[in-house]
Specification:
Number of strands: 13
Strand order of the largest sheet: 1-13-3-11-7-6
Number of helices: 3
Shape: globular
Order of helices and strands: EEEEEHEEHHEEEEEE
Radius of gyration: 15 Å
Number of domains: 1
Structural class: mainly beta
Distance between the termini: 14 Å
């Protein structure tokens, strides 16, 4: 079991067919998730292409998330978290926190992606829109989005299967100005485990 420390990022290499189990340890923590082709980081998991491929905005068990070249990269094979995830919101960054009124540096998922990849000696070519595991962003009245607390519970998890050799990166989202990580707005750690 590998910890994703609160407000930080980690990355891991997966071989095709391996799974990663992403655990919401305390139940309310959003985990931004990215995947990159291990042989070509410019081919990466794409939320806009995945929404087209799966035909809905929240992936469900059995769905394959695809790359910007429309090839499967991760499949969702198990989900005990309540099935609410987000594919619409960009990763938070320093500019997001400036818009929210932060006047000094704030930990953010964009920097966490870079740090997690750096831990493997890699540099992401860009910051794609992530699969925001456990994030609850409903579309209201067919057009408006809202930020709501996660519905996930302590110890709940998703299991993702690699459909190609890939690098998967995670950020324990540091958002503490909106209820992204629950009504207490207190980011916590999460965990993951690689399964053969």
């Amino acid at each position: 079991m590998i910890e994703i420390p609160a407000r930080q990022g980690k990355a891991v290499r997966l071989r095709k067919g391996q799974c990663v189990k992403v655990i919401n340890t305390r139940g309310q923590q959003v985990v931004d998730t990215w995947a990159f082709n291990a042989d070509d980081l410019h081919e990466l998991m794409s939320m806009e292409h995945s929404r087209v491929a799966i035909g809905h905005i929240i992936p469900a068990v059995g769905d394959a998330l695809v790359t910007n070249r429309r090839r499967p990269i991760l499949s969702l094979v198990e989900d005990t978290s309540g099935g609410i995830h987000d594919t619409l919101f960009a990763a938070c960054d320093r500019w997001r926190y400036e818009v929210l009124g932060c006047t000094e540096y704030h930990d953010n998922c964009t920097d966490n992606l870079a740090a997690g990849m750096a831990g493997l000696g890699l540099t992401p070519p860009e910051t794609p829109a992530p699969l925001n595991l456990f994030m609850n962003i409903p579309v209201v009245d067919g057009n408006r989005v809202e930020v709501r607390p996660p519905v996930s519970t302590p110890g709940s998890y998703v299991r993702l299967r690699a459909e190609m050799d890939c690098i998967v990166a995670f950020s324990a989202c540091p958002q503490d100005m909106l209820p992204v990580n629950g009504p207490e707005m207190r980011p916590t750690e999460a965990h993951f485990e690689v399964l053969d």
